[in-house]
């Protein structure tokens, strides 16, 4: 049972860390934060064709996320509900989560009737209220990598299409990889997959909202493939705020 619980929190840590953005540091932001925009402020992404190269796909995907506004985020705070499932189980462990990210720094708090969990990475060292749960590097995987695809040290390569989704891979100089699959009609990232610590993590986005010209996933799921089976988590974001003032101690390890 302990191993199952550890695996579920590893899955959750990776899922939320993968949403972290390129940002600078600034408890949770004030309640009068950024509302979701009713009209899109994100320009249409470059058109995707059957002959689009991996670089063109990445450029379109970045534009769909908000382009420079996405790249220049200082911090992101999201809050919502999560349901965690063990392999071969239809029983959900429900909870609420709050995640604050600023560059490589992150703080995750989870509460449910069955457990409480806290995970902090201050940019140099990590803390977990549950021993054995390590924070994946927030700047090595996921959407954060997309923001730096054209910087030195990153390479792109083509992937086979997955049904109607166009695929490409981004790898850094250390060999970390994220495989992206985007909707060719609007260039939004529908799915991305990353190997980490011998496991395979996959994220699928099903609903987005635009906030201050940045596209934020509001409904997404994640799979963690392990020898004992696949762990699964469903996330529903209720609120998201960008570029808010952060207290100095929000990432403090005590």
Outline the structure in words:
It is globular and about 50 Å long. The longest helix has 16 residues, at 2-17. Helix content is 14%, strand content 42%. Strands 5-4-3-2-1-12-11-10-9-8-7-6 form a 12-stranded antiparallel sheet. With 254 residues, it is mainly beta. The two termini are 28 Å apart. The protein has one domain (2-25, 52-241): outer membrane lipoprotein receptor (LolB), chain A. It is built from 4 helices and 12 strands; from the N terminus they run H-H-H-E-E-E-E-E-H-E-E-E-E-E-E-E. Mean pLDDT is 81; it is low at 22-33.
List keywords for this structure.
14% helix, mainly beta, twelve-stranded antiparallel sheet, 254 residues, outer membrane lipoprotein receptor (LolB), chain A, 12 strands
């Amino acid at each position: 049972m302990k191993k199952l619980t550890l695996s579920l929190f590893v899955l959750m840590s990776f899922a939320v860390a993968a949403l972290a953005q390129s940002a600078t540091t600034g408890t949770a932001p004030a309640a009068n934060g950024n509302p979701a925009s009713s009209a899109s402020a994100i320009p249409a992404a470059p058109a995707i064709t059957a002959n689009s190269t991996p670089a063109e796909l990445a450029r379109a995907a970045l534009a769909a996320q908000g382009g420079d506004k996405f790249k220049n985020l200082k911090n992101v705070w999201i809050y919502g509900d999560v349901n965690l499932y063990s392999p071969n189980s239809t029983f959900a462990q429900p909870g609420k989560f709050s995640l604050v990210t600023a560059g490589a720094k992150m703080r995750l708090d989870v509460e449910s009737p069955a457990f409480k969990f806290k995970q902090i990475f201050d940019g140099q060292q990590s803390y977990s209220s549950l021993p054995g749960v390590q924070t994946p590097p927030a700047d090595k995987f996921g959407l954060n990598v997309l923001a730096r695809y054209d910087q030195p040290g990153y390479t792109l390569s083509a992937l086979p299409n997955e049904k109607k989704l166009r695929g490409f891979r981004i790898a850094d100089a250390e060999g970390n990889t994220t495989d992206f699959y985007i909707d060719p009609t609007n260039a939004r990232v529908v799915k991305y997959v990353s190997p980490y610590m011998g496991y395979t993590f996959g994220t699928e986005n099903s609903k987005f909202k635009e906030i201050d010209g940045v596209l934020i996933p509001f409904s997404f799921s994640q799979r963690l493939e392990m020898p004992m089976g696949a762990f699964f988590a469903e996330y529903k974001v209720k609120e998201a705020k960008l570029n808010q003032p952060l207290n100095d101690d929000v990432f403090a390890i005590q």
